[in-house]
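BUG: 3D viewer hangs when loading the predicted structure for this chain

Environment: internal workstation, default settings.
Expected: structure renders.
Actual: progress bar stalls at 90%.

Input used:
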Amino acid sequence: MTRKEIVRELYKERFNCSQRTLSAFCDECNLENEVILKITSGFGAGMQHGEVCGAISSAVMVLGLKYGHSAGTDNTSKQKTYNLVQRFHGAFQSVHGSIRCKELIGLDLARKEDMEIAKENNVFQTTCAQYIDDVVDILEEIIASNDIE
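Structure tokens produced before the viewer hung:
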């Protein structure tokens, strides 16, 4: 199953954007899927405040889990991760102009009225699904290009 297929299947199970994204990359993270789903459960809808898109938050987690440092003196891994995160943000923003949920979808999901509008207009199945697909594409490209270095 492709990562995009995993994301679509998880949507059917009512998981949020962050959960679906990190779960699709669990093979890169060395974490059990149950742990991933729990860790990311609060990141949907821009951490429930329309801030950084949950799928983007998960992309940063993937990069940290794959390339990050766990020793305070490992400046090489630290800098590599920072560079990859900046590369990811730049690629996404160059296409969409923002990484903030409320700017991307034009709704503030922290507001009950906007959440209802999003549900009525299938924003999660359409708009958000496209953003998640783009996150997956960018992240796969970054990982592929770094795995051959």
